[in-house]
Amino acid sequence: MPPCHPLDVAKQTLAEKLPALSVEQRQAEVRLLVEAVFQLPYSALLTKSADFFTTEAFQPAWQQLHTLLEDRTIHRTPLQYLLKQAWFLGRPFFVSPAVLIPRPETELLVEAALGLITPSAKAEAPFRWADVGTGSGCLAISLALALQEHYPSVQFTGIATDISTEALQVAQHNADELKVASQAIAFLLADVLTPLDTSEKPPVGLDLILSNPPYISPILAPTLAPEVLKHEPAGALFSGDCGFEVVRKLIIQASIALKPDGFLLIEVGSGMAKTVADWAVTQASFTVLSVWSDYAGHERFLTLQRKG
Ligand SMILES: C[S@@+](CC[C@H](N)C(=O)[O-])C[C@H]1O[C@@H](n2cnc3c(N)ncnc32)[C@H](O)[C@@H]1O
Q1: Which of 84, 190, 208, 291 is least enclosed by beta carbons within 10 angstroms?
Q2: Which CATH architecture has domain 89-306?
Q3: Helices H, strands E: what count in the chain?
Q4: Is the pTM of this model over 0.90?
């Protein structure tokens, strides 16, 4: 049998076993998998012939490639969990099944938060913010690093909460790996903004809160891809009350934790934005500054402001 090139093996396996992947997704997965296993950049992989990979030295890599392809295609493990890495705003984040895999549209929350940190807000140091349901820490860490880089002379203090101890450990690990200044983010085990350790005080006087909370109704579980349903943490996906439970708690607790005129930025599911906006206005003291869309054009984000 002629020697096989690992790129061809990966391409063929994914095409046969995961035909629903788009060509672009398949190409990206093949590249990342083979680069990780053979520890060569894609450009180098492309220029090597199949013979190059037949040496004894590559036997463990071939074994690993077959195991990963099996996990990906039979068990439907997401690629990011296999590689233990997901990219968010141009940075690599360690991910484990204890945390949601960061999604590209969530990056919009960081951009929106940075847009709200106006020159007057910056002058009023220290500027205090919180990320509720931090998971891998992607939002909190990206925001802290952007603030560190762009406003080195302004004091910002962040709090990143999660109800999962394992998620907080992942977030802390990412903060260390990505060199966030140790005083820039305090990680807090909390139900939204209420610390689970009752000796800790809930944060108050915040200028800004951002959150991508769990918002999927458990009724929708059968509609999710196996990669999501079987592998991502249920606590990061589902929220009772048709997906609204954590969002509702967030609005109530944020209306207490924020300063007057402070901002609350929330990501929600498709079709939820109007209900959340109505609720924030009628049941809590918020004004809706904007409802904005994800890359697919669905209204998925709200910018709320606590009334002064
Ligand atoms: C959708 S994930 C978002 C993770 C990360 N911020 C991101 O955007 O990739 C929601 C996160 O909220 C956490 N969570 C769920 N319920 C919570 C609660 N009541 N209080 C605090 N965190 C909660 C989950 O553990 C999970 O890490």
Answers
A1: 84
A2: 3-Layer(aba) Sandwich (3.40)
A3: 13, 10
A4: yes
